[in-house]
Amino acid sequence: YQCHPAEELGVSHPVGMEPSGKTTIPDDLPTLAGGVLTCVTCHAPHGGIRQYFARKEITKEICVSCHEGY
To answer: How many Å is the Cα radius of gyration of the chain?
Structure first.
């Protein structure tokens, strides 16, 4: 939440945690040391061509790239 205050983001995906259970972050999405999920895991911090600077297209495919059986 260093780029935007949490109260401005609205509904968002949880960050600052390690994946658990049926969740695996694929190699093409970056994480912090220890595999911690952050905003920049899914969003390019310096811009991009996709909506919300997403690293992948915002479809069900971005969800199932990490969440099995979503």
So the answer is: 12
